[in-house]
Specification:
With 115 residues, the chain is α+β, with helices and mostly antiparallel strands. It has one domain. 26% of the residues lie in helices and 25% in strands. The chain has helices at residues 8-17, 35-54; strands spanning 20-22, 62-70, 79-81, 96-104, 110-114. Strands 2-4-5 form a three-stranded antiparallel β-sheet, with no helix packed on it. It has a two-stranded antiparallel ribbon with strand order 1-3. Strand 4 (96-104) and strand 5 form a beta hairpin.
C-alpha cells in the first residue's frame, strides 16, 4: 500500500482546520520600563559623551554589556490543541556560557570576554 505524501502547507492547513495553532512564545518587558528614567539617563549620557569628546585625554566612555547562554535546548514552538498545554521532553544538559563585551565610544575600540 503506497504511503500518502503531504506538503508542509497541506499539513498546516489540516492542523489549523482541527483548531491547532503554531505560535512563538512572546516575551515583552515594555511594561517594566520607566520612560521618564530612560529619558533622564539619555540626557545624562549625552552630556558625558559631549565632555568625553571635548576632553579625550581626561575621560573615556565605555559601553559594557553581558549576556548568558544556556546549554539547555528549549523548544519554544510546537503544534498543540488549543486550550491544552503541550509537554515537551528534551535534553536536560546543564551548563552556561557567559559573554561580556565592551566598546569605547571615542574610537570604537572593542573587547570581548568569555567566562
Amino acid at each position: 500500500m503506497p504511503g500518502i505524501e503531504l506538503s508542509s502547507s497541506q499539513v498546516r492547513r489540516i492542523l489549523k482546520r482541527k483548531k491547532y495553532s503554531y505560535v512563538w512564545a512572546k516575551y515583552d518587558l515594555g511594561d517594566k520600563q520607566n520612560q521618564l528614567e530612560r529619558a533622564l539617563f539619555q540626557e545624562r549620557l549625552n552630556k558625558y559623551l559631549a565632555v568625553a569628546r571635548e576632553y579625550r585625554e581626561l575621560l573615556q566612555v565605555w559601553f559594557w554589556d553581558e549576556s548568558g547562554f544556556s546549554l539547555r535546548v528549549i523548544r519554544r514552538k510546537n503544534w498543540g490543541k488549543r486550550g491544552q498545554r503541550k509537554n515537551i521532553t528534551g535534553q536536560r544538559r546543564r551548563g552556561r556560557i557567559n559573554v561580556m563585551g565592551a566598546i569605547r565610544e571615542s574610537d570604537r575600540s572593542s573587547s570581548m570576554f568569555l567566562y
